[in-house]
Amino acid sequence: MTTTTIGRWGNSMGVRIPREFLETMHLGLGTKVEIQLIPEQGILLKPMTESKRKSNRELRKLLLSMRGKNKSELSQGILIDDSVGDEMF
User: What is the pLDDT of residues 14-30, one digit of tens each?
Assistant: First the structure.
């Protein structure tokens, strides 16, 4: 267990995290973390899972790769397959 002090950080307050803790958890400057208040126990601070960050990056990459590649026929709702609509009821 280690002791630290709450300090001012702009209009908020912050806690300095000892280097040993950061190294053990593989955290560094700019690492996104989740913070959760656990009543009667304290505050839980944990790194965001890699899958969340990776999926956001992949989604953005996919979205950017599709930019400008819309087929006008599809965006206007025109069907390409002539067999669609010939169903028998």
Answer: 999 999 999 998 888 88
Name residue 12's amino acid.
S
- The Cα-based distances of 45 to 15, 32, 50, 61 in angstroms read 11, 10, 15, 29
CA angle 6, 9, 14 (to 5 degrees): 35
Q: Is the pTM of this model over 0.70?
A: no
Residue found under tokens 């300095």: 16
Q: What are phi and psi of 69, to 5 degrees?
A: -105, 15
pLDDT attached to residue 89: 62
Q: How far apart are CA 12 and CA 44, in angstroms?
A: 18
**Distances in whole angstroms, Cα of residue 76 to Cα of each of 6, 63, 68, 71:** 58, 20, 15, 9
